[in-house]
């Protein structure tokens, strides 16, 4: 049976013999308030150095660890920045961005917690995140709606920041417009004299958030030029790449934007195995500027995607937490720049 | 100034106007205990259906979200499984394993929380994890010592599970012995008639946890055979690979185990660019069995690394949480199997 909530947290019996702040107070011979002042480093209350030391020694001796949850209940908010894991595996570029961000937030004394992918989606997922009472939430992707934002705000999150293609009411937005990537790729192929351009669209539905805008961006770049776009669905398998390569000549394409560098590697291998010359018969451009593109022969042209620095984003989060009433900020943060090598 | 801890959580004023269970009780016209019974789905107390409905409607109307922290304080433990992010970027194989594990734990009603990498290491990091009062902790790598395990246990974690090369006192261990990978690679090269075998050791210090045992495993496999191992430090850059390739002939090697498939791609490219024939002059084997190995020419031989299934690990965690007093279990979980293709 559950205990009702009006029992004070530190008096409730922990599982087995978890030491509490009351135990520390008893051993140090001080009040529990004093223990709390010392362990929370409160600057508004003066505690004598010998007392402070006695409390710290007692805490060490008992192996007492403050309870972040209790502390956040007392303080009214936590230092936890919650970041749901993205639904799709987002590759090394995004991974680097996330670890840089975690590092930068850690330096500002936030604890970054990544919430695992679960079956819950959208606003239902927001409810699960809200239960942890984060002080800020960083949401990659497109799933969170205005209702989810408002639920998170009502549960005490001082800042909700989305990282995705569009703004959501009530949240700060770091707009990552993947269309810019497709736009840059197609404009480059057009400038190299190509007019019949294929665009690879991965069949993996988890990648749709990225592949759709990349395709749309490519269409936009060529609108009104007379150049043609052909959509090329492709699964992440050698077999599917070989199937596509086998009907390549019939497609009559003189260039292809392959969604990213990894799909470029997959398709280039299949094309070369069937005798298609790159770039003479078909120019190929990827995206993300991974090391592997430089190792392919011919060396792969690519679109370099520039994400915001972790430090900048951490600063935005901190500003928003300190000033929760401020109007949501919107920043366009995704840069796209063509790196031409030998494949175009 | 901090509030002292003996204020009941749900009576403490939230930041701005966060709805509390007291608000729900008031609107529904029931006691706070009843709200708690309904929202925690307590089966030991019978609540009439109209009352249950009134509480749920009131909670919905107010946008009330239960506080996981308060709930865990009441229940004495949480459903949070904490998983510190590994210090090194561990590649797609490990990424897939983690998301499978998160999914499996989610199905058992645990919330998986990944704790971001911070400056804190070892037992100091354990203290930070303990503050979140997880019911279980899964620690990849080698940093946690017996003191850290004991601190986590004292703070209420019912299970601590390490995923790494060695056991730690007091913790369950999933032994992932990377030496098996190097052993399999070297034994394969030896069986193919190679006797002067290079082993690539990435210069990236974050990869040492993996590269050292892989090297040691290769040495073990060849001990007493008369075959020789040459250690080859290599940075993840084209320049360093080109430097190594330039002095390749002088090294007199007839085979190389490249740490993993990505380093294989890097080194194979540099070797092929300087005219080394693979496998005639030098046999090459990688590890991890990534897609890219199948796309290289010649197709890359590799060591396929088999990790435990996420479902098995989730079941172990659940068993340990239900029976926190049981003796720690140790399982060897890393399998290594050579997949021979064209490069050896």
TrEMBL record, chains A, B:
Stretches the record annotates as Disordered: 1-20
Pfam families (UniProt xref): LacI, Peripla_BP_3
One Gene Ontology molecular-function label: DNA binding
Bias (Pro residues) ranges: 1-12
Stretches assigned to the HTH lacI-type domain: 19-75
InterPro entries per the UniProt record, alphabetical: HTH_LacI, LacI/GalR-like_sensor, Lambda_DNA-bd_dom_sf, Peripla_BP_I
UniProt keyword list: DNA-binding, Transcription, Transcription regulation
PANTHER family reported in the protein's UniProt record: LACI-RELATED TRANSCRIPTIONAL REPRESSOR, LACTOSE OPERON REPRESSOR
Protein name according to UniProt: LacI family DNA-binding transcriptional regulator
